Amino acid sequence: MSSTAAHPVASTSHPAHLEALHASVHADLDGIAPKKPKEKKGKPETVSQFPLEVQPRPDYIEHRIKIFDKLKAEYDEFVKAQPREEITITLPDGAERKGTSWETSPLDVAKEISKSLPDRLVIAKVDGVLWDLERPLEKSVKLELLDFEHPEGKKVFWHSSAHVLGEATERHYGCHLCLGPPTDDGFFYEMGMTDDRLVTTADYASLEKVMESAIKEKQKFERLVVSKETLLEMFGYNKYKKYLIESKIPDGTSTTVYRCGPMNSASYFLGNAENDSLQRIYGISFPDKKALSEYKAFLAEAAKRDHRKIGKEQELFFFNDLSPGSAFFLPHGTRIYNTLVEMMRGEYYKRGYQEVISPNMYISKLWETSGHWQNYKDDMFTLDVEKEKWALKPMNCPGHCLIFDSRDRSYKELPIRMAEFGIIHRNEASGALTGLTRVRRFVQDDTHVFCMPAQLEDEISALFDFMQHTYGLFGFDFSLELSTRPDNYLGTIETWDAAEEQLRTALDRQYPGKWELNPGDGAFYGPKIDITIRDALRRSWMGSRLWLESDPVWWRNLLGLGVFIVAKDCVKLLHLWLAKQELESRHVKNRSFAGVDVSGLDLINTLQRASPAS
């Protein structure tokens, strides 16, 4: 990591939106909110009053190093004793290279290919499994070499960077580390302080200096496979690590542990911890300074396009603490919202959908039948009505099933395509609420298609066409993932296998080679296709989802983040459209409002003219 450019960033929900290194008091890993330490009032400190590194260093650092060094010496002797044999290393293009077992490493192969290649690499894959660049190959293998631009390479790079951040926090605070994983936008590390000290903005410069010194030392990442018993000895001083080892690693088994300078971190450490108040620091890193500069430019542009900022400036919507997670749409925002709804209504009519309206709340018996009570209750708003449990609907599906079941149906009626702009409530954690992207109350444009198995192929094709047409109006690119059976699935494996195979076939037919598999992430009642769209800054957002339920029923929600995406990607156009200094009166369907005449076009046609990259 000698060429690494590190840049700490902020925000527990969207780290890429802010520029300063961020630390926050974070709820414990069980999700039980701990008491937050009281922060001092007044202006935040800009210079730390604490030394760069704690002196003397915590005893546990030397304790860990002694155990690791002893095990590493034993492992080195083991490697020396292994027989050396000629092996064949097959590259992705089919080319073959010869090597020696227990000697030749992926890094050696990279050096043979090109002198400059090793400087760009992050990790290797050996027979489909991630493999350290300097770790010797043990037999003939298929080898891939991954750089930072590869999704897995980027994740490993950020995981390694998290280890460097962990080392810096130990050296600066003398804290006890908990978790330090990569994220979609960088990495973070959580820690428990041994005293009452809080992480503040004044600490960030010190942390960066310690990280930079660790990087300049060109510390190696050394890997060992260690037994559970040895791990407990190594991390016995740290109750967070100890808890994770005891709860996550079965007795009599082993896991990997890495050393980076004085820092050790077991790669298996994921899961729950005791209910302590942990502090979390976010960061991001890149292989070179050019990429870091580009990222800072991205942050500046992202700040300009923050939909919360635009919503306030353009008087589209706002939020109030008296109803957290529920948007108040102002007149300008309501007109945009209604225009999007009318556009969808027109598409529903053309595509044979019938609009319905279902209740907002139901007795718990319905949710027990659907499985939501057992699998989703914690995310629902429940209430007591006349000694019975009720819940606000978190989705429209059960209501549409009741509409379908309200009378006898003939096969001649199928397919039946229902659509609803249903009001949804979900009990999202307060700390997760983020503008229009994560709310408690919203309207979801749901459709459900009730059809016979023989009609599935045509209905799937029609849904894909609907999706592609709608996203095409706004110039959005999208990607597709098939999410398969989760651990808490309902129904039989045979039913799930059949449903998943139908979706695979549909994706291969419509988008051959252009979709990914997401194992185990389906809904408990059926597999799904997740459609992710990209905004003007090439960030990914969850868009539409297609579910296949038994008997068979299709569920689709398409518009979803409509106003949020429109606000972000058409900011310049909206500014013109809503400009107050050029107001004139015009009529739309016999309703008057103040607006701007843009080329005589309605809003949707106008938005089609806007470049998402503008």
UniProtKB/TrEMBL annotation:
Does the keyword ATP-binding feature in the UniProt annotation?
yes
CDD domains for the chain? TGS_ThrRS (cd01667), ThrRS_core (cd00771)
Which residues does the UniProt record annotate as the domain TGS? 85-147
In residue numbers, the region (Disordered) covers 32-53
Asked whether the UniProt record includes Ribosomal protein among its keywords, one would answer no
This entry's Enzyme Commission designation comes to: 6.1.1.3
Enzyme class, spelled out: ligase
The main location class comes to cytoplasm
The alphabetized list of GO BP terms reads: threonyl-tRNA aminoacylation
The residue ranges of the Aminoacyl-transfer RNA synthetases class-II family profile domain are 331-540
What PANTHER family does the record point to?
THREONINE--TRNA LIGASE, THREONINE-TRNA LIGASE
Q: Which family does it belong to?
A: Belongs to the class-II aminoacyl-tRNA synthetase family.
Under what name is this protein listed?
threonine--tRNA ligase
Species in which this protein is naturally found: Hericium alpestre
